[in-house]
Amino acid sequence: MTAQAGLRPAVEREGPGPSSRKADRAAKHVFRSRRVPSAMVAALLLTAAGVLTAIEVISALLDRPAGIFPYGWVDDAEWDDWYALAIFAALALLGLLFLLAALLPGRSRMVPLHGDDPGLVMGVSRRGLKRAVAAAAEEAPGVSGVTRVRLGRRRVRVVAKTPVHEPAGLDEGVAEAVHDRLDRLEPLPDRSVRVQLRHRGA
Length: 202
Known about the structure:
18% of the residues are buried. The strands form two sheets. A four-stranded mixed sheet has the order 1-6-5-4, with helices on one face. It has helices at residues 18-30, 36-61, 82-103, 126-138, 170-185; strands at 2-4, 110-113, 122-125, 145-151, 155-162, 192-199. The chain starts with a strand and ends with a strand. The radius of gyration is 27 Å and the shape is elongated. By secondary structure, it is an alpha+beta fold. The protein has five helices and six strands; from the N terminus they run βαααββαββαβ.
């Protein structure tokens, strides 16, 4: 038997001052994912293309073309040929993917925490926040263990075990305990809590 609580909305902080808002923006900026792997791939591809092009151009100027690029087909190609359009589309798609990777925030390993001083930013690892949520849920009455904690950008989902045969109503207590822990840590942004209880024999 399982019992599932609906989403408990995140509690917004009331009236944060300018300094507090600036501190929150600073924390989000510091712990924003920099997309290092995609940046390295783009840099390596551009570097390789530049080196090969330089070799091809220099060798052609010396009347000893290296022939790295099979560009002979270009003389007979038309702009509206299917393979030319396919190459252009692939290059445009690749450029768009790299552009989106640069503009859109990635999934950071750190979760920023709310603060009041823009010069002092704090954060907690995603694993650490999950452990804190699991510990809070395990301390709630009627819970014998936590099987899963899923941390989303705006939601925390907890799947817990209980020896109680009729766990109706226990999920609200678990959600309350998790929310109290989140309220103390104050991760950014605020998150709602969803709890699912599954009956397991003691």
